[in-house]
Amino acid sequence: MSARIDDIAGEVLVRAGDAKRFLIAVAGPPGAGKSTMADNLAIALKARDESAEVLPMDGFHMDNAILIERGLLARKGIPETFDVRGFLDIIRAVRRADQEVLVPVFDRSRELAIASARAISPDHRFIIVEGNYLLFSLGKWAELEGVFDFSVMLAPPIEVLEERLWDRWRGYKLTEEEASAKVYGNDLPNGRLILENRRPADITLELALA
């Protein structure tokens, strides 16, 4: 584990003080490395005898049937294709830390969200929320402003995102044509939208830390 992840964990602990619940946002465009960083930060906090859990925003993808009905399946992942209200409700419930909260988790291999797939306990002191729109300044996502106690923005150069997104979709055995449609027709335009409309973060990094 890199020293930088340990540095961020140390900063988080200083900021948290004696707080019972501390919410950390790990935001960034598709392919930025958010889930890897969130998982590694949770490991670093647990190594310091803290309790931590990761809450992925991807669990709030709208189902494909709704996206087909709305003509949005090809643009899955843009701001309008998430259950924003449901996500805000869950984040507010998690913020209170007064009861267990069950959250959905997205299964990318099946392209669907699994309901109640992860439990956030009142005893989890640190909740690391990771997702594209946690610092997004437009639409209903702007209601997240002020919710997080600490934030990290991953903002890789577009060429790095492009390479990672190609690797992602090829890994799912898509044809070159299908992968190209995902990368250039959806993910990269969406990445630019996120990078151009973000609130300031406590820490901004070009590359996720392993």
From TrEMBL:
SUPFAM superfamilies attached to this UniProt entry: P-loop containing nucleoside triphosphate hydrolases
Q: Which InterPro entries match?
A: P-loop_NTPase (IPR027417)
GO molecular function terms attached to this record = hydrolase activity
Which domain of life does this protein belong to?
Bacteria
Q: Which residues form a coiled coil?
A: none
NCBIfam families tied to this protein: PRK09270.1-5 (NF006746)
Protein name stated in the entry: Nucleoside triphosphate hydrolase
Sorted alphabetically, the keyword list is: Hydrolase
